[in-house]
Write a structure and sequence with these properties.
alpha+beta; Immunoglobulin-like; 5-stranded mixed sheet
């Protein structure tokens, strides 16, 4: 029967779809809700658009994205296909209908399917009644149905026998677990019961009708506090008054609670105050309170038969009667350096002690100070702040601070300011700090056990405001503890301990500390300077204080050659430069520095540098020989420039041409010349120019002078031995007159000396004989190059030279080894200036009696040597 109805419903829907031709396909039922775990059956109907090309056999089904098996399909007719899904357990799922034609899938229609459970019986019904305003009931629904569930709240009137009268109540609808009746539907009755019915597509469930008396569920608005005030002259007391709300069930007694607490505490106290139904206001005195303390007060009330208190009223504050502050302030100072004028700034600061009960509201502070030795000069200042700056001179001062309020003044807090030249002893020997998990601990050692009071002062290292310091008095102890939260992490603090004895403050002992450290915020930046060949000096600056985050314990220098292994060196925290040694020459390095503290290290930016190929010593070793060589060459060049004529005479002497000599004429007749030459040549066999000039060839090389000259001497001696005998004929005199005439008698041994000067001068004057004949040794020295002065004729009228008798055999003088490079004539001093200034030329050994161009003959020293060698 059910299947027939379904078929009829499907055919009806199909005919409607065909008639309207509005939709291409449809699915039935749409958005179904079923019980979880049951079987679901859906139908898909094709529209005219898809017929006759497609029919129900082309329809496929999917559950979410999964294809449903073909055995679950059923073809109703050409346009209708159905699918059956067994044990549907999804809380929510989509079923989709597709057509598959020529291998392509096309979505026709889809629907959302929900599964759930039928509702449970509602329970725990409770209601709150606001008189003549609202009645609200709540309940619990049991398990979650996962389906849309509607709730109906029934309010029913009950008889005295607790029987529910039919059709004597009203109801309200809700989709949640709460429902309310509002005025004017709200009426006061003591005989109501409440029932809740829950229903969804799977079923319904109803609770029992629960009787609830209206007076028991009454809850009214909170009362309103009218005043909270103190009574003048009565301390530690406050009076509270309040007003009850208007909408209250009549003829019901009330109870009120007054809650109060001081603003320095989190705990509260409650006072209960009963009221009759006729009272519209209430009052209460709060006693045993603290003096000069502000309190917060709140009130709530309820009916004596109700189970619900009203909400707390809005709180109101008031302060108890004040009294004079009972504790002196906690006073401290910071003394700055003296000014040039002799004055100094003293920063006074103080704080109130945390005493309970407190002293009330402080109106201000009175500061008095005077020189220690003159109390009559007392001065007074008034301040509402807890700090002041006093400008004092170099004397010692006594300072006092008093707090005051409306009831009076506190005791004086007295502090002595020492004079500028006052020296205090060092009582604190050492101070150390350490931290635990929750606390910061400071300990110190004092050298005087009788000192029992100390002041501990601390402030941030970068704090420059004297009023930014904190302090604490410590009595009868040499350690101090406080919560770590009172200090900032990663910040350096200066901590000082001041001993107090009498009214004096001794010298402090200070230390720096961190409560918590972390790695430095940045690393040092390296500066390499100018590197050497195998070393470099690395420099860096200290990290700024705000970025250290702890005490720097050391620095680590990391350096790495290009394509090499990284090396490192660690130095102490006070070292800001370090010399790296044993580096590779002409190599690029990368260096960076890490700053280390107790929490770790941070590396700075890298720096690159390249070592030199040569160091200073290498450059000096290379440059010094080159420089010395250049200096030597330069000196040699300068010497050659300055002494070029001397070098030229030594290495390239000028050899004069005898044919061009104009030194002297020898007017000898041809027979004499011929006989003389014949005698010479007869004994010497052959004496030519080459034989005579042998000595000249020995002159240029001084190192060979001795051996060459000896050879020359031997050669000349052997060649001329015979001729010399014939030439020496006794004492002869050759007289010269102004006309350059010469006597006919000539002796080969006559000591005439021809000089290079006179030859080079090309003399035009007479050659005069020497006044005295030099000894043979002097002549030989002159021949061998001794620089003897010319023998001058002092008497201009005497023109005859006396010759010594060389009758003995003349041997070759060994002085001839000092060979000469110049020959000198003995020139008369009366030679004309013209003759003396004639150009000079070096002499050349000529053959004996060689005629000059002018026709005058002269005797050379070589000839003289031939004559004397015999």
């Amino acid at each position: 029967m059910c299947n027939c109805l379904i078929w009829m419903f499907i055919l009806l829907c199909s005919s409607i779809a065909d008639e309207n031709s509005i939709r291409d396909a449809d699915i039935f039922p749409s958005s179904p809700e079923i019980e979880r775990g049951s079987t679901l059956k859906l139908f898909c109907v094709l529209g005219k658009r898809y017929t006759p090309h497609r029919n129900a056999s082309h329809i496929i089904w999917k559950l979410n994205h999964e294809l449903i098996a073909q055995e679950n399909y059923s073809i109703v007719n050409e346009t209708v296909s159905s699918v059956t899904i067994h044990n549907f357990t999804y809380s929510k799922a989509h079923v989709k209908c597709f057509t598959k034609y020529l291998g392509k899938e096309q979505l026709l229609v889809h629907t959302e399917v929900k599964s759930g459970f039928p509702p449970d019986t509602p329970g725990n019904i409770s209601c709150i009644y606001y008189f003549n305003a609202e009645l609200t009931c709540t309940w619990t629904s049991g398990r979650e149905t996962n389906l849309t569930t509607n709730y109906t709240l029934y309010r029913k009137v009950m008889t005295e026998e607790r029987m529910t009268l039919p059709n004597t109540g009203n109801s309200c609808q809700s989709k949640t677990e709460s429902c309310s009746f509002y005025y004017p539907d709200v009426s006061y009755s003591s005989s109501f019961c409440f029932q809740v019915k829950a229903e969804n597509v799977l079923g319904e469930a109803s609770s029992d009708c629960v009787p609830i008396p209206m007076e028991k569920i009454e809850k009214f608005e909170p009362p309103e506090i009218l005043s909270v005030k103190k009574i003048t002259g009565i301390k530690q007391l406050l009076t509270v008054t309040w007003k009850m709300p208007e909408k209250i069930i009549p003829s019901q007694d009330l109870i009120c609670q007054v809650q109060y607490r001081n603003l320095y505490s989190n705990s509260s106290e409650i006072v209960t105050v009963p009221l009759s139904s006729a009272e519209k206001t209430g009052s209460c005195n709060l006693t045993g309170l603290w003096d000069s303390t502000e309190y917060l007060v709140a009130i709530r009330c309820m009916s004596v038969v109700s189970i619900f208190w009203s909400e707390w009223s809005r709180g109101k504050t008031a302060s108890t009667e004040e009294k004079a502050p009972s504790e002196k302030v906690d006073l401290w100072r910071v003394i700055e350096s003296s000014h040039p004028a002799g004055s100094r700034s003293v920063h006074l600061m103080w704080k109130l002690l945390n005493s309970f009960p407190p002293s009330g509201r402080i109106l201000g502070y009175k500061i008095q100070y005077f020189p220690e030795n003159n109390a009559a000069l007392k001065m007074t200042n008034v301040s509402t702040d807890k700090k002041i700056v006093l400008l004092l001179n170099e004397e010692a001062y006594i300072v006092s601070v008093t707090a005051y309020n409306s009831a009076g003044n506190s005791p004086e807090a007295i502090l002595r300011i020492p004079s500028t030249d006052e020296k205090t002893s060092q009582i604190i020997e050492t101070v150390r700090t350490f931290t635990t998990n929750e606390e910061m601990v400071v300990k110190w050692i004092a050298s005087k056990p009788e000192v029992t009071e100390y002041v501990l002062e601390w402030y941030e290292e970068l704090e420059t405001d004297p009023f930014g310091r904190s302090w604490q008095y410590v009595s009868n102890s040499t350690n101090w503890k406080t919560n770590k939260k009172n200090f900032k992490p990663f910040i350096c603090y200066n901590i000082s301990v001041y001993p107090l004895y009498g009214n004096k403050v001794a010298a402090p002992c200070s230390i720096q500390t961190y409560v918590q450290e972390k790695k430095p915020s940045e690393g040092p930046v390296a500066d390499t300077g100018i590197p050497g060949k195998n070393e470099v000096t690395i420099k860096w600056k200290e990290i700024s204080r705000e970025k250290r985050n702890g005490f720097i314990s050391s620095y680590t220098i990391f350096y790495k050659p290009e394509d090499g292994k990284e090396l490192s060196e660690t130095v102490n925290s006070d070292v800001l430069q370090y010399r790296l040694k044993s580096l590779q020459a002409n190599t690029q390095y990368t260096v960076h520095i890490m700053a280390n503290n107790g929490a770790g290290g941070t590396i700075g930016e890298p720096k690159t540098f390249k070592t030199l190929k040569f160091n200073k010593e290498d450059v000096i070793f290379i440059a010094l020989p080159i420089g010395l060589s250049m200096l030597f060459l330069l000196g040699l060049w300068i010497t050659c420039i300055l002494k070029k004529h001397a070098f030229k005479k030594v290495f390239w002497p000028d050899i004069p041409n005898p044919a061009e000599s104009i030194a002297v004429e020898w007017p000898l007749d041809a027979s004499m010349n011929n006989s003389f030459l014949k005698g010479v040549t007869s004994e010497a066999k052959t004496i030519d120019f080459e034989d005579i000039s042998v000595l000249e060839h020995c002159f240029p090389e001084e190192s060979q002078e001795g051996s060459v000259i000896m050879n020359c001497e031997n050669h000349v001696s052997e060649s001329t031995d015979t001729n010399t005998k014939g030439m020496v004929n006794g004492d002869k005199k050759i007289l010269y007159n102004e006309k350059n005439e010469v006597a006919k008698s000539f002796s080969p041994s006559m000591p005439y000396i021809i000089t290079d000067q006179d030859i080079r001068s090309q003399m035009h004057s007479d050659l005069i004989p020497a006044k005295e004949i030099q000894p043979i040794e002097m002549l030989e020295d002159a021949i061998c190059g001794s620089q003897q002065p010319s023998i001058k004729n002092e008497n201009y009228n005497e023109e005859v030279l006396k010759l010594e008798d060389f009758s003995e055999k003349a041997l070759f003088n060994p002085y001839l080894k000092n060979s000469v490079k110049t020959r000198e004539f003995l020139i008369s001093e009366n030679l004309s200036e013209h003759s003396k200034n004639e150009p000079k030329s070096q002499s050349t050994i000529l053959p004996p009696f060689q005629k000059s161009v002018a026709g005058q003959s002269y005797v050379t020293l070589d000839m003289f040597g031939l004559a004397t060698a015999h």
